[in-house]
Design a protein that fits this description.
It is an enzyme of class 4 (lyase). By secondary structure, the chain is of the alpha/beta class. 30% of the residues lie in helices and 23% in strands.
Length: 230
């Protein structure tokens, strides 16, 4: 009887339609988060390790043990073109799990980046490679290869549940997870939100105030707001 999900690699995972992923990739994290009803965000301590990093792709998930990056090497075999690696840990750890050598290996498999609730190193090299990484910390401390984790199991990363095949989108505003079965619908909702914001943007350019555009004057007055001329 298995007591946990450690020591497992699931080799067949469902991925969303690549066209839906491509449509979703046009939108920023904030737009997608709002379009989904303000759900799916990772905690804001997950940050890009270099300016301009961004990614979008189906998740190959990795469950790490603290101070051990063995499972990254196992995960590389499961990566398909366009995937991103999303890594959580069985407990908090900021060791440098990932660096330039692993990025080189993953890039050769078509991996488009990494999101990790842990530490990474070789940041200058990652930037030169243009391999996007979003992490909890930058830490030169190395790791060992001694303890089993898992690949392609559900993982909790910075308080967000990520299932294999979910789409992860990351940019300077943060990281958001879109459930695999909702990618097409979220792309459509994001486009509608973008179109609506463009019409508001134009009105703001013309000098219309938010007080009037959003009909705020009456509720503000009802709440007791007063204008006082000195």
């Amino acid at each position: 009887m298995r007591l946990n999900n450690l020591g497992l690699i699931h080799t067949n995972i469902e991925r969303p339609d690549p066209e839906d992923v491509a449509r979703l990739s046009k939108f920023g994290v904030a737009t997608i988060h709002e379009a989904m009803g303000r759900v799916g965000l990772l905690r804001p301590y997950i940050r890009p390790v270099y300016n301009g990093a961004k990614l979008c792709g189906p998740a190959v998930t990795v469950l790490l043990q603290p101070g051990d990056n063995w499972m990254f090497h196992a995960a590389a075999e499961q990566v398909q073109e366009g995937d991103v690696i999303v890594a959580g840990c069985t407990t908090e750890s900021e060791d440098g799990f990932f660096g330039e050598l692993l990025a080189t290996s993953l890039s050769a498999r078509g991996c488009k980046g990494l999101v990790i609730d842990g530490g990474v190193r070789d940041v200058a090299d990652l930037e030169k490679m243009d391999f996007p990484v979003f992490s909890r910390a930058i830490n030169a401390k190395g790791t060992v290869k001694a303890t089993l984790g898992s690949v392609n199991v559900p993982v909790v990363v910075a308080n967000a549940l990520v299932n294999p095949g979910d789409v992860v989108v990351a940019d300077v505003d943060g990281v958001v997870v879109v459930p695999r079965e909702l990618v097409g619908a979220v792309a459509e909702a994001s486009q509608k939100r973008e179109d609506n914001e463009e019409s508001k943007r134009q009105k703001f350019r013309e000098g219309v105030l938010g007080l009037d555009l959003y009909g705020m004057r009456e509720p503000l007055a009802a709440a007791g707001l007063e204008y006082v001329e000195n």
